Amino acid sequence: MKHMRRVVYSLLPLAVVTFLVFPYAKPVLRTWWSAERLRESAHAAPQDAAPQAPGEKRVLESALAGSWYTGDPAALRAEIKGYSDKAEGPVLEHVQALILPHAGYRYSGQTAAYGIKQIAGKPFSRVIVMGPSHHAALENRVCVSDFTHYRTPLGEVPIDWAFVAALRQNELFQSVPSAERPEHSVQIEVPLLQEALGSFKLVPLVLGQLDAATARAAGERIASLIDEETLVIASSDFTHYGANYDFVPFTEKIEENLKKLDMGAVEQITAKDPEGFLRYVGNSGATICGRAPIAVLLSMLPGASAAHLLRYDTSGKLTNDFSMSVSYCAIAFTGKWPRGAKAEEAVKAVEAVKEPELTPQDKEALLAMARKTLEYVFEHRKAPTPKDLGMEVTAAMKPIRGAFVTLEEQGELRGCIGDIFGERPLYEAVIGNAINAAFRDYRFPTLEASELPRIEIEISALTPLRSVASFNEIEVGKHGVLLTKGSSRAVFLPQVAPEQGWDRDTMLNHLAQKAGLPQDAWRDGAKFEVFEAIVFGEKKP
């Protein structure tokens, strides 16, 4: 029996991006809207899928221009030069790594310049920038880039694809485009590097909340691939003080106490002790957002490396207001990296790290996992793990990808919730969204155990979003489409157009209207991203 009409809306735009499929009319119409989720591209979690072929150019356009720093190229260059000219002190030899702040340039630009001045004109061919995730809860995971270039007002910087592919051979490193896109902690460093170095390849890494063991493992993996032409940057602000940051450990001698707190962290950094640094942050409560990048960097440093505090400042001092203040440090590390395996040699081809496709057996197992999940919840009143279900997780189930779980009862929609962007490994998305569809689709009463034998389950596993240059590249029936124009966005799943009997232009008319735009607004100035869906369901008798 054909699907009922459905419209997909966003239910939880933050903690877990879930989407509901609502009854709407006779053929299926699936759409999705989430103002906050789309405005900020806020949540995500690891690897949506294998890296796409490097030949397919995918550019991340930085959204920081015009807010975090000026969007005018000439003015931006002049601003950075002005900071650099004021940065005093000697230039160190053999700088191999830096800790730099990542606030807007008007606050942290001068501090950052003390670090950037140390590398100006140096022959670094690769720069690894590690920043903390401010949007996605990537517990013990590191997000690698799925783009081929970053673009700022100063031009494009190519991503070191061989290096990224080599990292991805370790399951700790996964692609999370929806975590990478909005993350300022990495992007803020790029114009500074462009001015200082000119031509180089970039390895942007967005780090989640890492424990000490994971930080060391990540550092060991990165260090095994770098050479003397690699610069490593840990992007971090230091203590965030004030009620807005929920951190007011003292109310007197604030400037003095902030410096004391921050210098305690710097002491651990100077000792190159990642475990000691993380313990200090945990015990003191110091709100250092880039603790994970710093810990990873410290775990990478050779024994002979030396730390140099170049500059310390606070926004409170800059604004003369310590009721809310963020601290900034520029720290350089001198020494030489041991020559690791060349990334180009470690990866013969990007295809070597492509994820396995879902086999018929994988699909049957995922459907069984969804059903067993519901049986388990009815019996134990809690969410299961695969081990609880007695099920094996295959390699094809581990990559992070968006997924929907749809429940039908005697041909009628009974619940449907999913993730468009990919929040978690596929098997976790199936388990989580089976529960969501059964018990958290607020348009239906919660599922009863007596209904389960009559329920039929369908899973839609989504591929990651990728940009297309023109709407002419959109294939009806194959591609789901995310349309963006200004601050307006909307998405259709791949099934929408064929189930509605729409051609491409009609689909885009409806999609524009769904975004709150005139129906022909997609024809000029809109951007398009596409994805596909692998849809499979339980066999009907």
How many individual β-strands? 23
Shape label:
globular
Give me the number of helical elements.
18
Estimated structural class: alpha+beta
List the uncertain runs: 1-55, 348-353
CATH topology annotation of the largest domain: Glycoprotein, Type 4 Pilin
CATH class wording of the largest domain: Alpha Beta
| CATH architecture tag of the largest domain | 2-Layer Sandwich
CATH superfamily (homologous) name of the largest domain: Hypothetical protein ph0010, domain 1
Helical percentage: 25-40%
**Beta-strand content estimate:** 15-25%
Mean pLDDT: 85
Oligomeric state of this protein: single chain
How would a crystallographer describe the biggest sheet? 9 strands, mixed
Alpha carbon gap, first and last residue: 12 Å
What characteristics describe this protein?
Glycoprotein, Type 4 Pilin, globular, alpha+beta, six-stranded antiparallel sheet, Protocatechuate 4,5-dioxygenase, Chain B, 541 residues, disordered N terminus
What do these coordinates show?
- Strand 8 (149-152) and strand 9 form a beta hairpin.
- The chain is 31% helix and 24% strand.
- Helix 9 runs antiparallel to helix 10.
- Strands 5, 6, 7, 10, 11, 12, 13, 14 and 15 form a nine-stranded mixed sheet that branches. A six-stranded antiparallel sheet has the order 1-2-17-16-18-23, covered by helices on one side.
- The protein has 18 helices and 23 strands.
- The protein is globular.
- With 541 residues, the protein is α+β, with helices and mostly antiparallel strands.
- It has two domains: 1-41 and 355-541, Glycoprotein, Type 4 Pilin; 59-248 and 313-346, Protocatechuate 4,5-dioxygenase, Chain B (3-Layer(aba) Sandwich), CATH 3.40.830.10.
- The termini are close together.
